[in-house]
Design goal:
The structure is a homodimer of 307-residue chains. Chain A is an alpha/beta fold and 307 residues long. In chain A, strands 4-3-2-1-5-6-7 form a 7-stranded mixed beta sheet, sandwiched between helices. Chain A is 38% helix and 17% strand. The longest helix of chain A is centred in the first third of the chain and has 16 residues. Chain A is globular and about 65 Å long. Chain A contains 14 helices and 7 strands. Chain A has a domain of 201 residues: HAD superfamily/HAD-like (Rossmann fold), CATH 3.40.50. In chain A, helix 11 links the parallel strand 5 and strand 6. Chains A and B meet through helix 8, strand 3, strand 4, helix 10 and helix 11 of A and helix 8, strand 3, strand 4, helix 10 and helix 11 of B.
Chain lengths: 307, 307
């Protein structure tokens, strides 16, 4: 146990995790949860990996928007293409989280899921984070990689429940987080089975399936998992419903909230990040019983060693 | 290996299964599939348990339709209530599979998922199949229970992908089939998170989420699993898209189709079962590379011993 979670400092957050896991895995104990009940859900952007200056999927979409504008120059004068192409953060932020993601989804409509994921993997293999100067697969939070592994060692099934596109995340979640595709839940577009010459492919349509944020997160947990998690981890007001839904079940529960307060090692932001603000959930964390995790104080290391 | 699948006779179907599993689990062999790729999907009604004279969920819905008609007698004169209350199979069949299931979903709108599943469990504990004279949990096919267990012993993850309601199946799938809720995919209604006094519940709305049949099955596999199965098992034309989508992937694949041809031990039906016919898929099974499983010839035993 003492070797677990080496990138977590010995503070209230780490103690809350270790105590919780000990309680729910002690057979015969008052808080014991059988393994099938050990469902843990994690938001992705800002919880498992860096979401500054923009969510990674938004950065990824920039390349396709550029290619589309090359093919049809009139697009470059049209919003929101113009804002994306000019890196106009103020206009992008004004679209809000759902608006930005819907743009990202829309420009990939008409592709097959397989072709889309090939494109994601190629991009991930070559693109580098502008500030952190490393591949995006290394902009994940080291303490969270340790936590995911620690939970799985203790019989938990770990899920991602994110506003990000489900097909996008599944292109790397197994390799980067050890979370298989069937345990990744996200925003989605409608898929359609297309047959051509006896071959079958799933095509991404322009229609939104669901935007997996706020109260939709518990609804999608209901659709995909079918039981209430006992641990939830988020970082924004978009996660509040999932955190409180998790805490409201019977037996012992744990909800955690990353607070990005470290401008030296990462970025310090909360209510000012318009795309995905953290306001009410931070102000009322104690009232709701949510454990706040300070990047500055609770994480001894933020990112994996650069390779 | 020889003790596996004792309720399967030593014929082409059993050999196809055993050969397939040996091939994909032999490390270094040409057909080896790493464990995460070993995804097996099963239809439910008519594939894992009996769907005659009607799908179990339709029979379950009869009790609620009766209660609603007691509260509002005018309902008893209105279709499709009238047909359900009078067990008018011809009218019920004429509604088609989606029509019948949409009625079953509609009469449970407004309940929480938890309350609905409590009702399902209570009904399952007391109701008995009209012909087989046993609880519905014992109208499952013994050879399929053995197959599910055999696949899991060989590193497969077993999923249900059914036109039946996902909340309905999850009320018993773990206990009856050993398939946890997060591996059950089905038709669904929209869910909504409702808060009352700080408590959170998922409510079943009247709007359909998806009707999980035909081409929607592969689309829902894409949404929920995110990779193509390597084994699929169905019993009707509603499963054809899933079977062919499975077979079309790279590497070795297996698709199986139950043909209900045993009127002595169960029911003999295929193209005449209007709610869920088997026509084209049976006629073209060889062309598609689908292994037909005859209840009469391939299953030494159909149901578990009555308890």
């Amino acid at each position: 146990m003492t070797q677990s979670l080496p990138s977590w400092t010995d503070g209230a957050a780490r103690r809350a995790i270790v105590d919780f896991v000990a309680a729910v895995t002690t057979p015969g104990g008052p808080d014991f949860a059988p393994a099938p009940e050990r469902i843990a859900v994690f938001d992705n952007d800002g919880t498992l990996w860096c979401e500054q200056p923009l969510q990674v999927q938004v950065l990824f979409s920039h390349d396709r928007a550029s290619a589309m504008a090359m093919a049809d120059p009139s697009l470059a004068q049209r919003q929101p293409f113009k804002a994306f192409l000019e890196h106009d953060l103020a206009t992008i932020h004004a679209l809000g989280k759902q608006g930005v993601f819907e743009f990202a989804f829309a420009i990939h409509a008409g592709m097959s899921v397989d072709a889309f994921q090939d494109e994601v993997r190629q991009w991930m293999a070559s693109a580098r984070h502008p500030r952190l100067e490393r591949p995006y697969a290394q902009t994940v939070y080291q303490p969270q990689l340790e936590l995911l592994a620690y939970l799985r060692e203790n019989g938990f099934k770990t899920f991602i429940v994110s506003g990000g596109g489900v097909d996008f995340m599944r292109a790397f979640a197994e390799q980067v987080y050890g979370v298989p595709p069937e345990q990744v839940i996200g925003s989605s577009v409608q898929l359609e089975l297309r047959e051509a010459g006896g071959h079958f492919e799933l095509m991404k349509l322009a229609q939104l399936g669901s935007f997996d944020d706020r109260a939709v997160k518990p609804a999608n947990i209901g659709l995909h998992i079918g039981r209430r998690p006992i641990l939830a981890f988020g970082n924004s007001d978009g996660d509040q419903a999932m955190l409180r839904y998790t805490l409201d079940g019977p037996g012992r529960r744990l909800a955690l909230l990353v607070h990005h307060d470290d401008d030296v090692r990462e970025s310090a932001y909360d209510r000012d990040f318009k795309l995905s603000p953290l306001t009410d959930t931070l102000d009322r964390a104690a009232e709701f019983g949510i454990q706040v995790v300070s990047v500055k104080d609770d994480w001894a290391q933020v990112f994996p060693p650069a390779r």
